[in-house]
Design a protein that fits this description.
- The chain has 178 residues and is α/β, with parallel strands linked by helices.
- The protein has one domain: Leucine Aminopeptidase, subunit E, domain 1 (3-Layer(aba) Sandwich), CATH 3.40.220.10.
- It has five helices and seven strands, in the order E-E-E-H-H-E-E-H-E-H-E-H.
- Strands 1-2-7-6-3-5-4 form a seven-stranded mixed sheet, sandwiched between helices.
- Strand 6, helix 4 and strand 7 form a beta-alpha-beta unit.
- Helix 3 crosses helix 4 and helix 4 packs across helix 5.
- The longest helix is centred in the middle third of the chain and has 18 residues.
- Pfam families: Macro.
- It comes from Halanaerobium kushneri.
- InterPro entries: Macro_dom (IPR002589), Macro_dom-like (IPR043472).
């Protein structure tokens, strides 16, 4: 499903974040040490190759809500933007921190003249953030920032399964058609 926000095409798809060949930057739902892990972080590190972990060494650790950028190495993209989402129930206030993940990632993309970026559903896996709440925060953040993002033309949410896709579509319909 697609939406237009200002000059930005917002796409919601089901798929694999490591297979977004037409996107300049993919976002890694990283851990604080920026190392290979499970979920999105594991998939991105495996696809990018060992050079990614080496590139991350001098950038770690990061705090929840922060974002850093590296080359993408063996991924089909130019960049990986790494952000650390909140652990639900532990890192407070969760919505503010999650919003900063998206804001800081988008600001890094804009600063690096990136025209297209793909996000996973940050913090919804092992960090336990409820998907519906995460979808609301992420879609609202993109909507709020759209007028500031002059060079970004495509923002894509790549959701792992159909349920997550439906949840993000539902939130996008509520937020973007008001």
């Amino acid at each position: 499903m697609n939406f237009q926000i200002e000059e930005i095409l917002l796409e919601l798809i089901q798929g694999d974040i490591t297979d977004q060949k037409d996107i300049e930057a993919v976002v890694n739902a990283a851990n604080a040490q920026l190392k290979i892990g499970g979920g999105v972080a594991g998939a991105i590190h495996r696809a990018a190759g060992p050079e990614l972990e080496k590139a991350c060494r001098n950038l770690a650790p990061i705090n929840p809500g922060e974002a850093v950028i590296t080359e993408a190495f063996q991924l089909p993209n130019q960049y990986v933007i790494h952000t650390l989402g909140p652990v639900y129930g532990r890192d407070k206030p969760e919505a503010d921190i999650l919003g900063r993940c998206y804001k800081n990632s988008l600001k890094l993309a804009a600063a690096n003249r990136i025209k297209s970026i793909a996000f996973p559903a940050i913090s919804t896996g092992a960090f336990g953030y409820p998907t519906e709440e995460a979808a609301e925060v992420s879609i609202r953040t993109v909507k709020e920032m759209a007028s500031e993002l002059k060079n970004i033309k495509i923002i894509r949410f790549v959701l792992y399964n159909k349920d997550d896709l439906r949840t993000f579509e539902s939130q996008a319909n509520k937020i973007l058609t008001q």
